[in-house]
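Anyone up for a design puzzle?
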């Protein structure tokens, strides 16, 4: 992967993975969080969910942690209207500090591993604290060739039982979960497809063309199996 070309493609996108504000609202309602909280968005990307969290929790202090400077700048600009209540820093999400009442991690925990990441975050949680994370999940039933090909680079893919087992190994309980499938993926892939078309029109070089081709293939595989490709949004607490 040519990373300069990757970030050229991803510059200015509203999200860096599937999801929507309803995911945030569901999680907060389900776990009953409100008031003067400390919240961390680990791997916040350009700040889509961090912005929603800040809107949904007007009394909370929020910290976005992101390893990529480009996304840090985008998230800072996006959340600047919240003032000092929302900070975005370049850092390692494995060591977020704390203590936090909620660690939110949309589509990024797989960089650490579910068990490894939750273990690392245990001391970052306040008493009674929660982790909400989304993780690729294998849906029950037969999978099409497109779905299998879509996940071929993620060998850790399991059904929900496998995710629950990885959570348990870190000393947490899965309290609830819901599937992210269909429309929330379109909120990511729609702007990405538009950006690909924009860059295609600019006569891109070989390296950028390769990145555009790879992303177009990913989108095409999702479109061929959109009802079979999902994340699980998991709500977990230390046991």
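Challenge accepted. My sequence:
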């Amino acid at each position: 992967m040519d990373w300069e070309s990757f970030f050229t493609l991803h510059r200015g996108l509203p999200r860096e993975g599937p999801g929507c504000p309803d995911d945030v609202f569901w999680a907060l309602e389900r776990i009953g969080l409100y008031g003067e909280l400390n919240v961390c968005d680990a791997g916040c990307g350009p700040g889509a969910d961090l912005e929603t969290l800040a809107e949904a929790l007007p009394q909370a202090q929020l910290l976005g942690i992101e390893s990529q400077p480009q996304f840090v700048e985008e998230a800072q600009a996006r959340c600047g209207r919240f003032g000092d209540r929302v900070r975005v820093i370049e850092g390692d999400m494995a060591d977020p500090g704390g203590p936090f009442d909620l660690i939110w991690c949309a589509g990024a925990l797989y960089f650490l591993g579910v068990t490894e990441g939750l273990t690392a975050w245990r001391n970052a949680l306040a008493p009674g604290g929660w982790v909400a994370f989304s993780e690729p999940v294998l849906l029950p039933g037969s999978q099409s060739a497109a779905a299998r090909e879509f996940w071929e680079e993620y060998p850790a893919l399991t059904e929900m039982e496998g995710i629950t087992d990885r959570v348990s190994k870190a000393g947490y309980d899965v309290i609830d979960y819901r599937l992210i499938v269909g429309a929330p993926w379109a909120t990511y892939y729609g702007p990405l497809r538009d950006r690909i078309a924009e860059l295609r029109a600019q006569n891109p070089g070989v390296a950028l063309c390769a990145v555009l081709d790879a992303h177009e293939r990913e989108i095409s595989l999702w479109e061929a199996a959109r009802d079979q490709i999902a994340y699980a949004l998991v709500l977990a607490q230390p046991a």
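A detail worth pointing out: The beta strands are 38-42, 61-66, 86-90, 100-105, 125-138, 172-181, 229-238.
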